[in-house]
Model the fold of this input.
Amino acid sequence: MRRVSPQETEAQQTHIVLPSHSNAHGNAFGGQIVAWTDICAAVSAQRFARRPVVTASIDELHFLQAVKVGMIVELRSMVNRAWTTSMEVGVRIEAEHPRTGERSHCCSAYLTFVALRDSDEGQDAEIVLPELLVDQAEIWRRRHHEAQLRRDHRLKTRAERRSHR
Ligand SMILES: CC(C)(COP(=O)(O)OP(=O)(O)OC[C@H]1O[C@@H](n2cnc3c(N)ncnc32)[C@H](O)[C@@H]1OP(=O)(O)O)[C@@H](O)C(=O)NCCC(=O)NCCS
Done:
């Protein structure tokens, strides 16, 4: 079985907020930040799984501050934890003032991707994800543990939604 460290799944994106990315107030449109977030996270998921993946869910998002046109936006993502066919990717989004270099945290996101069978695999082919190597340092153990708590919550609310259909 392949073994992959979270660091090997890291993806980064850097953008400048252009007028075409903005809302009527001259700030980045939230949907644009979500689109960048989904793509950055998908790259991490693909680097981990090395097979097709789809976004199954995006946890609730809080935009902590507006990002003005002209600001630099940097996204950084990594796989936090993987289960049987799904994996959680964490994304941190920061804004950087282009002249002062001052940086601020504008949003954090957790997305779940699900690995799919490749087009040349049969319907019954088993989907096997690599093992995520978790460093025993406190920060990695904490991320790993918190990812499980978030998954438990996600699957509980998914089950509740289904029971109300
Ligand atoms: C995501 C999707 C593949 C899940 O299919 P499904 O048959 O409902 O999935 P299952 O119940 O067999 O679960 C498969 C895995 O997905 C996980 N999962 C499914 N829905 C989930 C959700 N809403 N949030 C988090 N994880 C989810 C399950 O926990 C399971 O993980 P595990 O194998 O690691 O235990 C399917 O719902 C889908 O294709 N959705 C559309 C995805 C898409 O098109 N995204 C782009 C944006 S529209």
Q: What stands out?
A: The pocket of coenzyme A is lined by residues 54-57, 83-86, 112, 114, 154-155, 158 (CB under 6 Å). The chain has one domain: 3-119+127-163. The chain has a mean pLDDT of 96. Residues 37 and 86 are 18 Å apart (CA to CA).
